[in-house]
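Summary for the funding panel

The consortium committed to producing paired sequence-structure records for every protein in the target list. Below we show the first two records in order, beginning with the earlier of the two.
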Amino acid sequence: MEVSVKDNSGVTRSKKIVATIEARMTSTRLPGKVLKPIMGYPVLELLIERLQRSEYLDEIIVATTTNDTDEPIIALCDKLNIKYFRGSEEDVLIRVLDAAKSVSADIIVEITGDCPFVDPNIVDEYIQVFLNGDYDYVSNTIDRSYPIGFDVQVFPVSILEEVNTLTSDPVDHEHVSIYIYEHPERYRLKNMESDEEVYWPDLAVTLDTQEDYELIGRIFEELYPHNPEFSASDVVKLLRDKPELVLINKQIKRKNPHGNQV
């Protein structure tokens, strides 16, 4: 749904909102994770299905690499009629920026392919906050209250273009938006807090390890057959009702963008 907003000159222009999904087959802890099957569907397909329920996204584009190993991702995009862009494996910032520009995006909704539970209702809420507020960046990752795996980040293409000119630090280029939220003196940031029923910052439902894969599969098997449009709160409720599931990946140590385990 393209939206009309006034630019700095007061002229009303249409803004194209695009979700970029970072996806590659060469993850170190769980190679090929984005195409691992759950209920017969690749993880990436289940994520795309969820994002397609957004009322605000005009387009979804998968930002993958030029590696031959990522040909299966391209094949899936072709099958699903989803656009893709192929760029650098290491410079993810440039890859995402060029992917967004390839479809003439104005606003990026940054998603990673290892977060198959991203809730389209959260996506739309954050887009609304971004459009109605005076912000450069809206997300739920600055001060975490949501479980890891519901991460959504919204910012303009123009801001990412600027960041690309300001930093050549490999950390900034590997973690697309880190420079934005680590410079609050420069950018207007909005951190979104979860409501009480979803608050669980120590929970991880992201796909990094074999244990994560087992947990995510169990969650989909519990929820998807009864309601394919299940929400973030449905996931959290299930895990509160069945705490034995949380034990599947509870021992996994997560790394922050600077390489430290958290």
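The next record, for a separate protein in the list, is shown here:
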Amino acid sequence: MRRWLLLITVISLLSLPEIAGAQDTVATPTPTPALDQAGDLQAQLDEAQRLLDEITARGADSDRALDIAFNMLGIFEAIGFLVTVGGGLLAAFGVLRLFSAQAELQKARERFEQEIETKERELDEMKESLEANIATSAALQHRELSQATLALSLLPLGERQYRAQDFQGAMDTYRRALELDDQNPVTHLRLGYVCTQSGLLDEARFHLTRALDIEPDFAAALAALGYVYRRIAEKMEQGVERETMLNQAEGRLLEALNKSPKLVDDDGESWWGSLGGLYRRRNQIEDAIRAYERAAEVTPHSSYPFSNLALLYMQASDRDKMLATYRRVERLARGETQADVDNYWAHADLLTAQLALGKVNQAEDALQSVLDVAPVDSPYVLELLVDTLGRLTEALGGSRTAPHIEPFVERVRAEIARRRNGQNGA
């Protein structure tokens, strides 16, 4: 419809001027004579022909203009169509993009919700695991605390058993305490000390080393381990290995005494005495005397350091000082035995002092007390007494000048043999 309206409009615009001109020309002819009328007629015909040709030409131009108009209209329509189609495509593309964005957003939202749910589950699982671990840990801690408390309650029992010369019972108690709590260095120390007195030197070394693993600066364990090394060295033949072991013993004892100069063992004796015994075995008499004097300063009411000093004074060729010291030993030892009738070391010191002073009759009673209270589980204590009495005999000039000592030595050896045979029979 729009095409036809445009065509009519173009034709009208092209025809109006010519038609108007033709009307004006035809409407006003000039009057001429008859002769001229034929010429005029011819002229008019020619003019009409010219006008016709011009109209024809203009008609052709109109057709071309119309074609151009149609072409322009087509272009306009094509552009409009393209615009419409393009707009539609753009709109469709926008809609598709919108739908796609919405879909991606929905997927992202779903993924986010899934991740949130996963995290919530993981958090719940972690919370449950943590609560379970806390409950388990609390139960374990409660159990460990209960066991540690029970282990600690066993220590006084083990100590009482040791004081009563029940070494085997004390070791069993301490071992039970370690089953409940093996991280207590004191328990390892106590068990190591009793094992040492029982002659179980390898087990003693193990527990004392374990105590130091737990508490490296544990002075009591350092000293006890040094004493074990000394005891091990005493069983070795003379040589480099023995000296190496004695050096280790000296090092541990000195380290412990540097940390705690007044340190005492489970029998209440100063560890300076053990160091003095080491120096005596090396024949370092002056060093041994100084060590035992330090021990006497720490425990001035104990007969132990003075008994050893008396023999050292004799080795230093001071017989008078030896006898004076033994009189002090007799007085101190008698007081200790009265205060604690089960104090084996005090009974042994009393026996030694009385034999040194020639009090044989009194020594008989002392010997019987020694044999009565000597720990059954520790043959070492009687062996040490034999060694002490042998040194006393040498200090007094030998068996010829001190014949009263040898019978006592023989009776102690017989008791050692009897106990060993009894143990073998068991």
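Regarding this second record: DSSP finds 15 helices and no strands in the chain. The radius of gyration is 64 Å.
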